[in-house]
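REQUEST FORM: STRUCTURE PREDICTION
Request ID: SP-0412
Submitted by: Lab K.M.
Chain count: 1
Length (residues): 745
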Amino acid sequence: MLGSTHGTLTTDSRPARVVACGERPAPAVHSSTAGPDSTSADLDVSGRPLHADVPDLDRFFRPESVAVVGASDAEGRPNTGITRQLMAWAERVGARIHPVHPTRESVFGLPCVPSVTDLPEQVDLAVLLVGDPLPVIEELAEAKVKFAVAFASGFAETGQEGAAAQARLAAAVERSGIRLLGPNTNLNAFEKFREDLEGPAIALITQSGHQGRPVFTLQELGIRLSHWAPTGNEADLETADFLSYFADQPEVGAIACYVEGLKDGRSFLLAADHAARRGVPVVAVKVGRTETGARMAASHTGKLTGADGVVDAAMRQFGVIRVDGLDELQDTAALLARARTPQAEGVVVYSISGGTGAHFSDLATEAGLSLPTLSEAKQAELHQWIPEYLNVANPVDNGGHPVGDWRGRKIIDAILDDPDVGVLICPITGPFPPMSDKLAQDLVDAAERTDKLVCVVWGSPVGTEDAYRSTLLGSSRVATFRTFANCITAVRAHLDHHRFTSGYHSPFADAPRSPSPSFRKAQALMRPGQQLSEHAAKQLLRAYGIRVPREQLVTSAAAAVRAAGLVGYPVVMKASGAQLGHKTELGLVKVGLTSASQVRDAYRELTDIARYEGIDLDGVLVCQMIEPGVEMVVGVTHDSLFGPTVTVGLGGVLVEVLQDAAVRVPPFGEDQARAMLTELRGRALLDGVRGRPPADVDALVEVVLRIQRMALELGDDLAELDINPLMVLPRGQGAVALDALAVCR
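STATUS: Completed
RESULT:
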């Protein structure tokens, strides 16, 4: 028998068991239907939207008419260069341009009007080249302008005063009905994109224009770009708006993002969900992993960066591929935009050198890629062209010489014809023209006849070789990289993305639309602004069907003895009070009591300690002892960006020592609850170690799902919930919450 130092909870009835390139794949869209008592099909139980609001940005990127407010043609003025660039852009997209300036009759030969109200026609887009855009917003509204861009800086990125000015601007924009890009943005949306490139394109979203330059420059390597949204301070239009819009554009094969701070976590997740349902990959650099990075991000965009662990988990939960470097961003986005749907997950490494193949294979395997051993029949086939003493099991070592003649192409085709192979990767560490040039051409030719992914790592630091610049980069079917690491990152992201979207079911489709009976019970137990006693916190858990041990709250020694007889010896006794947190450290927990005399003595000792420490008690809990199992922690906290979050990890004293926990943002389903467990370093404890039986994982998953329902329904009213430990008993015996802490807002 085990007495936990963290307490116990009542053995209510068991909860119910858990029931358990180039061509974009068909969207995995699932319709969401509300229940019979649903309040709205578009709002969840807390009144938050369940679908992304996708703005119609067609007239932003392809306007018919544009007003340039503050236009200039005076030499040496900053606005002159901007006006000239906007005129060139307007000509490319076929838009009429109207300069606006109070003292000029013409700008670059075009008639100029003094005010927005004097425009000769209703315009789609107004570009504001003024220091303070606020006074212009009302005029734009009167002129029924659809979109505006504000370049001006000096807003939230500068501190409190600037944040107040941005709030005034945002309020004016909301009243006007205009959609605003900026402030503190730039000209990236009006760049010249190459129109001679074919195939799926990358759409780019950045909060720092310069950080998007590497992705934009991919055009020089033959990778198509279709859009660039420099969101700036996001007083109105934000990353999520462009993410949702780009996911609907048929030419977009992948979306690349550089994110410093999210304006609204919920909007971002809805947009990511929209992209996942459409099957469009999203690759993101999100700064703020460290305290220094978070401070820099705030100073630049004036936004919260959020707790990075939550950001990371939320992105993973909705299929956003997070990378760290701009080089990874460009390489991964380029591969995902152009690669076809994988036919198999097996990766074969093929090289001129055995050492190169072994090195790459080690790194790929460690990163989680599957390198299957080729069948004996396939190996025998390869040995027709490769000497018998060389390894062809995977990695495949050709020894060098076969690539210089007709055998090279035969080897590549034979590997690609294997049904278990979905990806062929050929690392070429340095140029050796007698071999590398022919090998590169054979790979390009083979890639043209297959739907499988062919990747080449060109390791030369020079990068001017003809085999690289012309042969490899000239192919739209071969994915070419400069480093092992970026190739592995991109291939893993490609396989992960298609695995994720092939079975994707939007968690918002099943989110509760109306409160459950559990919510009504729980609401009556909440005490605004207070921490609940353990007894009250357990009542909250009971309301949601989470098992707790048998227990009674008593206020006398005699009552404690009677309670022990009803609960059944041995018992645990604990002090219970509204502001009482760490009971063990104060000696306010007594474990393994087996007689009436021990219970009486324990009651007196607990109340004496509480009196001495000045702690107000609502009573003493007499609790059932619970059989040993795996101690876990399940809890709810609030994130500044995403709202309620659910955490599960190893519990007891291990929670503070190991900090082994996984996080999700509600709503989520059983698949994500189980995925949380696979992320734990101590996951093996649940499978049974050192002769212990496997734990009841189904019951643990059920508790996690019930807690996320509680988090959704109680929302902001529940500031914090901590079940530690949740004792997960052997398989088939359930899980019991032994202690609980709850704080109400």
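NOTES: The radius of gyration is 31 Å.
Reviewed by: T.R.
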